[in-house]
Amino acid sequence: MKRCLNCMEEYEEEQAECPFCGWFKAEKKDEALEPGSILQGRYIVGTVRRRNCADILYIGWDALFSRKVFIEEYFPKSRTYRLHGETLERFKADDPDVTEGLNRFIESGQMLISLDETAGLLPVFAVISENQTAYMILEYPGDRTLRDVLESRAPMTIDEAEKLLMNLSRPLLAAHRNEIYHGQLNLECCYAVPQGKYKIGDFNDTGVITQDTGDDHYEAPCPDADIFELAHIVGAALTGVKLWESRSVDDNLEKLSNTIPDYVIDALSHATSENPDVWPSSLRRFVDEFMDEATIELPSGRVFDEEEQPRKNHVIWKKIFS
């Protein structure tokens, strides 16, 4: 028997193609690790699932526990390269931004391990250093993403969009409370799991540090990018992905204004604005505005943490955290 490096299923040696996914070994054409590479003597690297601005995501196999995994490799595309073998090389040997990004990638991954019981968060099993870079080993939830779901159905109702927002907000709120930001939130990193739920994975906010995001709004990892992208996700759910992505935000919101409440339009408009003066000050403020709820502030200006949530007359916390 041999294992397919594209879907990690086993099949007979004499078969040239995988009977499960149709894959056969192809010539390596990019800077990604060669399928079949092994990390820590345990993790078998498969094919690339996605190439992001500051990392590469592979399917993988954990030989110790005999399970599929995702393997996320720190790989800032503007500062590093791989020509031969597995070692990641830097264009500038002593690039401080790459070092800072690498350290943050490792620290964030280790913190995410401690949050593995957070509902809606794709668990990180391990963080390892090898090949002059680092890797997060994540739970494999399957390949069906929120994009697949939204492209196969009609636009969501406002009630459905509220449920989606609550599902995606919980893991992000837990991460933000620990100063971990996703940094590249999109439809593809929200994985569909049973009972109509989603898990968010592929955290990596280091593209801001190495200037790989192509967005000069943010000078350091911060929550604003996640709020911006979450608003676009919910907007796409309300209009349909193709329409949302083919029209301007203003056009989309004008079309939506005939069918959804004004406070929802305002929430989406503020969160996706190019004017920082109207951005929500926190993810929780965006959720509150979308739900037409008031954020309760402490005298210091700090919003309540989960542990400090009000017990009376504040419906939104019951919705999100119950």
CATH superfamily of the largest domain: Transferase(Phosphotransferase) domain 1
The structure class reads: alpha+beta
Order of strands across the main sheet:
3-4-5-6-10-9
Instruction: Indicate the radius of gyration in whole angstroms.
Output: 21 Å
Q: What's the average pLDDT? A: 90
Question: What number of structural domains do the residues give?
Answer: 2
What share of the residues lie within helices? 25-40%
Order of helices and strands: EEEEEEEEHEEHHEEHHHHHH
- The assigned CATH architecture of the largest domain is Orthogonal Bundle
Q: What is the top-level CATH class of the largest domain? A: Mainly Alpha
Q: Examine the coordinates and then state which fold CATH places here, giving the name of the CATH topology of the largest domain.
A: Transferase(Phosphotransferase), domain 1
The shape is globular
Key structural traits:
Phosphorylase Kinase, domain 1, 9 helices, 322 residues, Transferase(Phosphotransferase), domain 1, alpha+beta, disordered C terminus, 2 domains, two-stranded antiparallel ribbon
Q: What is the fold's blueprint, element by element?
A:
Blueprint (H helix, E strand, L loop, with lengths): L1 E2 L6 E2 L26 E2 L3 E9 L3 E8 L4 E8 L5 E2 L7 E2 L5 H19 L9 E7 L2 E7 L6 H6 L6 H20 L12 E4 L3 E4 L23 H16 L1 H6 L2 H8 L5 H10 L11 H9 L23 H7 L1
Antiparallel strand pairs: 1-2, 3-4, 4-5, 5-6, 6-10, 7-8, 9-10, 11-12
Helix pairs in contact: 3-4, 3-8, 7-8
